Amino acid sequence: MHKTTYLFICLALINFSVTSQNAENNASNKDNFRFGGGFNIGLGNSYSTFSISPSVIYDFSEEFGAGLGLTYVYVKSKSTVSSTTNLFGGSILTFYKPIHYIQLSTEFEQLKINQKYTFYDDISQWQSALYFGLEYVSGNVALGLRYDVLYDKVNNITQSSALTPVFRFYF
Fold first, then answer.
1. CA 110 to chain centre
2. Cα 41 to chain center, whole Å?
3. Could you tell me the domains of the chain?
4. pLDDT grade, residue 38 (50/70/90)?
5. In the chain, helix, strand, coil percent, each to 5?
6. Distances (CA, A) of 75 to 5, 26, 82, 154, 166
């Protein structure tokens, strides 16, 4: 009987200790979130483009982080065939920092593409990308390159190459 009482007291103390640690960690969990992303404005003789990609990252530790992102891109082409393209979608991101200034990243992105032409049929399709990246991190900024392993030169509308630059800013 005394063993049972001691067991309940020990379990109650362990439970109280775990609960108090979780309450303290809840306040610091807010500090583990980073918000940011990227944007782009491009102007040329026959085109204009605008894109915005906000994202939120949760840092599980100093080395690992994961999050979600949204993407919207608008492209207006005034070349021989005038067109307007709207892309929107989302992505899942993961980050690993083996060294303080080096970051490895993976990103799975799914985009809905709507193209409207002046004299042709409109095109609506989905496009997937799976990027593996290497980035240099300094403060809140990451610069690097990423490679799309799902890249298909014939069917890819958004990129001219599987290798693309990365510029990320988080606060």
1. 11
2. 19
3. 33-170 (2.40.160)
4. confident
5. 20, 60, 20
6. 71, 43, 11, 19, 19
| In contact, 74 and 97? CB cutoff 8 Å | no
Residue 3's identity, in one-letter code, is K
- From residue 42, alpha-carbon distances to 39, 63, 106, 124, 135 in Å are 10, 34, 26, 23, 23
How far lies 107's CA from each of 50, 54, 124, 134, in Å? 21, 14, 23, 12
Helix, coil or strand: residue 135: strand
Selection from 98, 128, 127 nearest residue 114 by Cα: 127
Q: How far apart are CA 127 and CA 73, in angstroms?
A: 13
Distance from C-alpha of 24 to C-alpha of 13, rounded to nearest angstrom: 17
Q: What is the pLDDT of residue 30?
A: 75
For 32, the token pair is 């583990």
Pick the more confident residue, 96 or 82: 96
Q: CA angle, 149 as apex, 144 and 150 as ends, to 5°?
A: 130
